[in-house]
Design a protein that fits this description.
The structure is a homodimer of 377-residue chains.
Chain A: E1 4-8, H1 12-24, E2 27-32, E3 43-46, H2 52-59, E4 64-67, H3 74-82, H4 91-98, H5 100-109, E5 117-120, H6 123-132, E6 137-141, E7 151-154, H7 161-165, E8 175-179, E9 183-193, E10 199-201, E11 205-210, E12 213-219, H8 227-243, E13 247-256, E14 261-267, H9 277-280, H10 285-293, E15 307-314, H11 322-332, E16 337-340, E17 350-358, H12 361-376
Parallel strand pairs in A: 1-2, 1-4, 2-3
Antiparallel strand pairs in A: 5-8, 6-7, 6-8, 9-10, 9-11, 9-13, 11-12, 12-15, 13-14, 15-17, 16-17
Helix pairs in contact in A: 1-10, 2-3, 4-5, 11-12
């Protein structure tokens, strides 16, 4: 019998699990939020993941339940576990990824390197933190943020009045304030861990952000071999082991101007900074996630070419889909690996990505950017 | 709007078109012969491809119809074309691949290198051909053969009495006799051609057969660079252009002991000898086939590693599926790319394949064979 994976959420991460499931002979079923989701080919059900009954019915007869996103409520997750369903990552691990205050508390308790931070319940808490950190800090909602949403750089507590007014609420019961880290660049380290303990790591990558959204990834991060790579991998392995993460874990990192590596964010699922691995690594993060959550032996994370560069394609103000521009991009960049998520191209929305691999970094960057810019129109 | 490809036939070739369709944002629909086909994830309909009405209904609203196999009757193909459906490869091209006598006649007329052959209508025709070719020749049914079926090496016409008795019938209106070629090895050359003319070629590969079935493929064929590769590519390009093939064309070749390259068989679709390209080439034969039949610009056919080795997995006498052996194979060969076709493991049936790529051929062969043998049990 084919092993069956149930994925909650029908976004592009679920979509990109489909090809490796086909290869490995796994059955993949997706509980999508809407008809016509990005993962529609594998969507066996459309329903609300906040509803325990819906999720329990979906999880019947699957070998494991995993996720396209981290938003499934703890009550629903625990109902699954109580019903005997194998859930990976487990609710206890996901709890840490679902709330940035919990995450900071756990990482600090583990002695892992993080920016200075504070739990902020009132404007005066924030005023104190501002005064201690040069008058300019980052404030984040504890819950519900993504791609720059729920993150503001502020010089005065009045700049997050609306967030204070909403507390406690869907964004959490307090805010998180963090020092503005002086960083040289952003890195990301992905690892995968099986329930039985095996962990593998991909090379640490450089992540280039624009407007709070990941724009480009270079794998491996140039010049990272040695100390930086070792620190990044050690941090991610520790997080995976200590938090009991199963499946893929992505750790977003700052490489500071004083040569430290600090943890920025965690994601307990395949992550945008690992998309390069589909075309650049022997085992992609999507195949590895499927292996890991099924507790199957993990695949080789080596690379064939020296460099992989991934560039996101965002929906733009111009009308038109990636499909409209396929012929032009293919003609211009025959070596570009195109990934179209099958989503409506709303402005700023991630609708796809392009990866190019090769041994000359300048050439690889040029090709990947050219292809992505063609799509952007 | 996403481009839509309709595939007739639900075998593993249709199945392996699904991952690149997901990547490129194409919609893929499959007309499968049965429920639970290898391509079931994309099967939108189950029906009989001999029935024009079924196929016409399936083909409504697709941008192109293409094939998992070459068995769709000419009458059905022509009904599609008359209804205005884009069909690739076109009926005229497929006609040549559907009948080995027609193929030999066309290739000979084009002056392409083929083994000596003759059209055999009676036992006395075969006696004459035997006498002229050392008393031992190959006889093939014109239609319906695959994987060694419909092929016999004979020393007497009585050895194909059953085939004569069935003429004219489903195996054709005559038999094909061919000289027994003294060959050093078997090669295969795949190319892809768009309706608008662009052609690209992958490296020529070596195909190792066991019991008339492709067992292993080494890409590129060792020691083929130069004259052999040039001849193989020139032959395949000529076939594609002269026969008007669209999509992927695979040409099976003999490399003779006297250093000639002769055409053995043709397939106008992705082919077992091209499966290595999924993991070994920038653009796989399945992605390329989708691009080509949609008349989209073709992708780069370069390779990342020096060598790719593919080994087929056949159903064995032991019970059990590939799924049962996944953990053992993954633990033993973390670099093996596993492709499980999701088929019942009847003895001798191709149920999957394994590919390993790398720069040390001995090592790559060892890993690929080890993984495939683990599956065979």
């Amino acid at each position: 019998m084919a092993l069956t994976v149930g994925v909650i959420g029908g976004g592009q991460l679920a979509r990109m699990m489909v090809p490796p499931a086909v290869g490995l002979g796994l059955e993949i079923r997706v509980l999508a939020e809407t008809e016509g989701s990005s993962a529609r080919l594998a969507a066996t059900e459309v329903g609300d993941y906040h509803d325990a009954e819906t999720v329990l019915a979906f999880a019947r007869d699957v070998d494991v339940v995993t996720f396209d996103h981290e938003h499934v409520p703890q009550g629903v997750l625990r109902a699954l576990v109580e019903a005997g369903v194998s859930v990976h990552p487990a609710p206890e691990a996901l709890f840490v990824a679902q709330d940035k205050l919990v995450m900071r508390e756990r990482l600090s308790a583990l002695g892992l390197p993080v920016p200075d931070w504070a739990r902020i319940e009132t404007p005066s808490d924030l005023d104190v933190f501002l005064a201690e950190h040069g008058g300019r800090v980052v404030v984040k909602t504890a819950r519900g943020g993504y791609d720059g949403h729920g993150v503001r750089v502020v010089t005065s507590s009045s700049e997050v009045d609306d967030w204070f007014a909403a507390l406690p609420g869907p964004t959490g019961d307090a805010l998180l304030a963090e020092e503005l880290v002086e960083f040289r660049r952003e890195l990301a380290q992905s690892v995968a861990r099986r329930p039985s303990g095996e962990i593998v790591a991909w090379p640490v990558v450089e992540s280039i952000q624009r407007d709070g959204v990941c724009a480009e990834v270079i794998a491996p991060a140039p010049g990272s071999a040695g100390r930086i790579a070792d620190m990044a991998e050690a941090i991610a392995r520790t997080v995976a082991e200590e938090l009991g993460v199963t499946g893929v874990l992505a750790v977003e990192l700052f490489e500071t101007t004083d040569d430290r590596v600090l943890i920025n964010e965690l994601a307990m699922r395949p992550h945008n900074t690992g998309h390069w691995s589909i075309d650049g690594s022997t085992t992609s993060q999507f195949e590895q996630h499927l292996r890991a959550v099924l507790d199957l032996p993990l695949g080789d994370t080596g690379t064939h070419d020296a460099w992989s560069v991934m560039v996101n394609v965002l929906g733009g103000p111009a009308t038109g889909t990636m499909a409209d521009r396929l012929p032009a991009v293919m003609a211009d960049q025959p070596g570009a690996k195109i990934h179209d998520y099958g989503k409506d191209p709303r402005p700023g929305r991630k609708v796809g990505h392009v990866t190019v691999t090769g041994d000359d970094l300048d050439d690889v960057v040029f090709q990947a950017r050219a292809a992505a810019e063609f799509f952007a129109g």
